[in-house]
C-alpha cells in the first residue's frame, strides 16, 4: 500500500525564473529571511526548509521565482533545448514546464504550448504571462491532431511530452483519492482499467511525437509510480522509435535512481522515489541526429 508522504517534512523548492532575475540575486534576496541552499542536481533550483510558506512572497507574486518540485524541475532540464530552437510542449497546462523551457532557452526561439482543456488553457496563459515568457505561443488544441507536416510544426526540434497520468507519484492531495482503493483493495479493477486507458493515451502521444520530421530530442515524463505508465510505455515503443532513428539517451546522468530493469536501456531512464525523494516521477529522453535519415513508414 502507498504511504502518505508528510508534506510538512519535505523541503520547499523554488525555481528561479531566470527570464526575470539571475539565480545568485534570488539566492541573496531569499537568504535575507530563510536558510537557502542551491540544489546540486538542478540548475536555478533553490531549497528552503520544510514548511516555508512563500505563497505571498513578492518574488512569487511577480513570477520571479516559481514553487516547483525538484523532480518536476528535472523534466525541462532533461530536454535542455538550445536558445533559438523551436520546441513543442505537447500537454502543457498549467505551464510550469513551459516557462521553465522558456528560461532555459533564455527567451530565444519559439515554444508552442499545446493544451486540450479550455479551463486549463486559461491557467497556462496566466503562467506564461506571469513568467514574462514572450517566446511562448499557446494553442488550444489536441496534440494528437496536430499535423507534423504543417509548416507550424515541421521545424520543431524538441518535444516535451508530459501527458495526463495517474498522478500516483505526487503530493498527498492527489494521492488521497487513490488511497482508499489501493489500501483496501476495494476497486482494483477500476484502477487497473484506468491505468490501462492512461497508458494507451500515453503510448499514442509518444508515437505521435516520433512523427515530427525535424525533432532531435523528445522527453517523456509522468508523475506516476506505475511501471505500466512508465517503463512499459517506453519498452513497447522502442522498435517504433528506432524506425524513426531515435534512441534512448541518459537523462541527467549524475542522478543515481534509474528506471526499473525491465527493458534494455533502463539505465538511461530516470526515476525519483515517492518516499526517498518525496515525489515519484519518471523521465525518458529520446534523441536522434539532426541529419537523421528518416525511415518512411
Ligand atoms: N506539463 C504541465 C506542467 O508541468 O505544468 C503538466 C501537464 S499535465 C500532467 C497534462 C496536461 O495534458 C493536462 O493539462 C491535460 O489537460 C492535457 N492533455 C490531455 N490530453 C491532451 C491532448 N490530447 N492534447 C493536449 N493536451 C492534453
UniProtKB/TrEMBL annotation:
Q: Which family does it belong to?
A: Belongs to the class I-like SAM-binding methyltransferase superfamily. RsmB/NOP family.
Identify the keywords attached in UniProt to this record, alphabetized.
Methyltransferase, RNA-binding, S-adenosyl-L-methionine, Transferase
Question: Which Gene Ontology BP annotations are present?
Answer: methylation
What GO molecular function terms would the record report? Answer: methyltransferase activity; RNA binding
Organism of origin is Cinchona calisaya
All copies of the SAM-dependent MTase RsmB/NOP-type domain together span: 2-289
State the name under which the record lists this protein: SAM-dependent MTase RsmB/NOP-type domain-containing protein
Shown portion of the complete protein runs from: 160 to 456 of 503
Query: What stretches pass through the bilayer?
Result: none
Q: Which reaction does it catalyse?
A: a cytidine in 25S rRNA + S-adenosyl-L-methionine = a 5-methylcytidine in 25S rRNA + S-adenosyl-L-homocysteine + H(+)
**Catalytic residues?**
223
Q: Where does S-adenosyl-L-methionine bind?
A: 91-97, 115, 142, 162
Amino acid at each position: 500500500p502507498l504511504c502518505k508522504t508528510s508534506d510538512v517534512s519535505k523541503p520547499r523548492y523554488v525555481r528561479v525564473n531566470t527570464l526575470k532575475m539571475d539565480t545568485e540575486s534570488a539566492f541573496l534576496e531569499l537568504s535575507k529571511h530563510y536558510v537557502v541552499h542551491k540544489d546540486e542536481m538542478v540548475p536555478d533550483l533553490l531549497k528552503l526548509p520544510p514548511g516555508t510558506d512563500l505563497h505571498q512572497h513578492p518574488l512569487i507574486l511577480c513570477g520571479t521565482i516559481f514553487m516547483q518540485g525538484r523532480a518536476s524541475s528535472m523534466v525541462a532540464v532533461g530536454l535542455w533545448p538550445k536558445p533559438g530552437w523551436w520546441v513543442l510542449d505537447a500537454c502543457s497546462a498549467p505551464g510550469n514546464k513551459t516557462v521553465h523551457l522558456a528560461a532555459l532557452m533564455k527567451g530565444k526561439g519559439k515554444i508552442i504550448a499545446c493544451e486540450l482543456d479550455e479551463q486549463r488553457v486559461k491557467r497556462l496563459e496566466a503562467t506564461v504571462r506571469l513568467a514574462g515568457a514572450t517566446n511562448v505561443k499557446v494553442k488550444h488544441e489536441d496534440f494528437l491532431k496536430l499535423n507534423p507536416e504543417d509548416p507550424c510544426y515541421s521545424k520543431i526540434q524538441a518535444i516535451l511530452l508530459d501527458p495526463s497520468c495517474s498522478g500516483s507519484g505526487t503530493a498527498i492531495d492527489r494521492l488521497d483519492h487513490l488511497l482508499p482503493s489501493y489500501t483496501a483493495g476495494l476497486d482494483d479493477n477500476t484502477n487497473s482499467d484506468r491505468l490501462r486507458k492512461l497508458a494507451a493515451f500515453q503510448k499514442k502521444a509518444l508515437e505521435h511525437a516520433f512523427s515530427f520530421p525535424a525533432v532531435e530530442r523528445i522527453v517523456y515524463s509522468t508523475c506516476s509510480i506505475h511501471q505500466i505508465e512508465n517503463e512499459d510505455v517506453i519498452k513497447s515503443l522502442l522498435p517504433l522509435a528506432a524506425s524513426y532513428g531515435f534512441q534512448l539517451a541518459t537523462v541527467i546522468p549524475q542522478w543515481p535512481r534509474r528506471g526499473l530493469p525491465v527493458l534494455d536501456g533502463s539505465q538511461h531512464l530516470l526515476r525519483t522515489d515517492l518516499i526517498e525523494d518525496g515525489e515519484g516521477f519518471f523521465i525518458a529522453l529520446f534523441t536522434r541526429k539532426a541529419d537523421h535519415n528518416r525511415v518512411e513508414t
